[in-house]
Amino acid sequence: MVLRYMPGFGNDFETEALEGALPQGQNSPQRCPYGLYAEQLSGSPFTAPRGTNERSWLYRMRPSVQHVGRQVKLDLPHWKTAPHIVEHGAPLAQLRWDPVPIPKEDVTFVTGMRTMTTAGDVYTQVGMAVHVYLVTAPMVDEVFYNADGELLIAPQQGTLRITTELGILEIGAADIAVVPRGTKFKVEPVDGPSRGYVCENYGAKFTLPDRGPIGANCLANPRDFKTPVAWYEEKETKHRIIIKWCGGFHVSEIGHSPFDVVAWHGNYAPYKYDLRTFSPVGAIGFDHPDPSIFTVLTAPTGEAGTANVDFVIFPERWLVAENSFRPPWYHMNIMSEFMGLLYGRYDAKEEGFQPGGMSLHNCMLPHGPDRDAFIKASFGELKPHKLTGTMAFMFETRFPQLLTKYAATLPTLQDNYADCWRGLEKNFDKNRRDWNG
Ligand SMILES: O=C(O)Cc1cc(O)ccc1O
Ligand SMILES: [Fe+2]
C-alpha cells in the first residue's frame, strides 16, 4: 500500500477516499453523500481568533458518540500526567540516562509508554510530559485517543505505522509525527521493535515559530510537513477504544472499526515531518547563537516568547564561526531542557550521551560542554567543520520538569554524570591575559 500525503502546515486540507464523499460548498447537508454522518472535531474554542482556529469536518460511517459510553477504568501506572505525585527522594541534579532497553515481552504504544518527566498542570491545559515509548507489539483492534494533549512522536529506533481516523502516516528514525488531541489512532511497528521519544503537549498546539528577520524561507518550511490523505476500513468487528482523560485511562468496547472516516476537510489533522528537511541558519561570522534558531515547532503560552514547549533540533550543519568557542556555552536557563539523541554524537558531549539516551537540565541548573569538549573547542583549529550524521533534540518548557519515580530509579540513570564537568581546571592567571593553555 502506497501512503500518500498532502504538503503544508495548518492548511485547509480536503481529501476523500471515495469520489463524491466530501460535501462541497457546505459542511452539513441535510443528508450527506453515501449516508455518511458529518462530525466536527474542534481543536480550538469556536471563538479562537482566525489564525489559531482549528477544526476539521469528518464524514464517517458512524459518529464518534458511539465510541464512548460505559467506559471502564484502565490502569497504566507508567504513563503519568502533571501534576503527578513525586514518589522518590532523588536529590536535585543534572541528570543523564543511557537508552532504556527494549523489553522482550509484548508492549504496545499505550502499554509501553514510560513517563520520564511531567511539567505544568493538565487541568489548566498548560505544560507537558516527556515519555520514552517502547513498542514490540502492534495495537490490534484497539484504538487510542488522548484528550489531554497532542503527541509529538520521534522514533529513535524502528519504523512506526500510525493509523489515524484521518489517514495513515509512517515514520522512521529522522521523522516526527504529531497526532492532535482527540484524534483516534493506533500504532504498529513496521520493521521490528521500536523505541523513541514522545512529548505530550497539554497546551496550545505546536505551530511554526515566526522567522522574524530570517524572512520567508529556511528553518522548517511548511511544504515539508505532510498530512495523510483520507483512508477508511469497513469492519464490523470488536474494537477497544482507550481514552486518556485528565491523566486517567478509560476503555470501552464497540462493534466496529472507528477508522471509518471516508472524507474530511479542515486544518486540524495529524502530520509528519522529516527533520533532515530543516534548513538551519546559524553564525557565519562569530559566536554561538541561542539554540532557539533551531526551533522546529513551538507551542506558545499567552506570554509572548515564553513557550509551553519548544521543540528544537541540533541537525547536521557546518561550523564556521571564527575566533569563537563553537559548542554550546556554559549556561543556566529559566526554561527546563530535556534532551534526546536520535543518532550520531552531540557536540557538547561526544562521550556519554548515547543515541536513545536522555539528559535533563532543569530550571536554573547549570550545564554546558564536558571537559573534553571544552579542551577540544578551546584549542582546535577553527577551520570550517561539518557536524555530520547527527540529530539531537530538546523539549524545552517554561515549567520545571518533575521526575517520575520510573525515571529516578531507571537502571540506566548515570550516577556519575556531573563528573563530566569535574575536571574543568581553574586556568585563571592574572598575569596572563593571552591564556593559551
Ligand atoms: O544545553 C544544551 O546542550 C542545549 C543547548 C544548545 C545550545 O547550542 C545552546 C544552548 C543550549 O541550551
Ligand atoms: Fe542548555
Topology:
Blueprint: E1 5-7, E2 13-16, E3 37-42, E4 55-60, E5 72-74, E6 95-97, E7 113-121, E8 126-135, E9 142-146, E10 150-157, E11 160-164, E12 167-171, E13 175-179, E14 185-189, E15 194-201, E16 225-228, E17 239-245, E18 248-254, E19 261-266, E20 271-274, E21 295-300, E22 307-314, E23 317-319, E24 336-343, E25 358-361, H1 371-379, E26 385-387, E27 391-397, E28 402-403, H2 405-409
Parallel strand pairs: 9-17
Antiparallel strand pairs: 1-16, 2-19, 3-4, 4-19, 5-18, 6-25, 7-8, 7-28, 8-15, 10-13, 10-15, 11-12, 11-14, 13-20, 16-20, 17-18, 21-22, 22-27, 23-26, 24-25, 24-27
Fe (ii) ion binds at residues 331, 333, 337, 361, 367.
Family: Belongs to the homogentisate dioxygenase family.
Subunit structure: Hexamer; dimer of trimers.
Active site: 288
Give a written overview of the molecule.
The chain has helices spanning 371-379, 405-409; strands spanning 5-7, 13-16, 37-42, 55-60, 72-74, 95-97, 113-121, 126-135, 142-146, 150-157, 160-164, 167-171, 175-179, 185-189, 194-201, 225-228, 239-245, 248-254, 261-266, 271-274, 295-300, 307-314, 317-319, 336-343, 358-361, 385-387, 391-397, 402-403. The chain has 437 residues and is mainly beta. The model has no long low-confidence stretch (mean pLDDT 97). Residues 291, 328, 331, 337, 348, 361, 367, 394 line the site of 2-(3,6-dihydroxyphenyl)acetic acid. Fe (ii) ion is lined by residues 331, 333, 337, 361, 367.
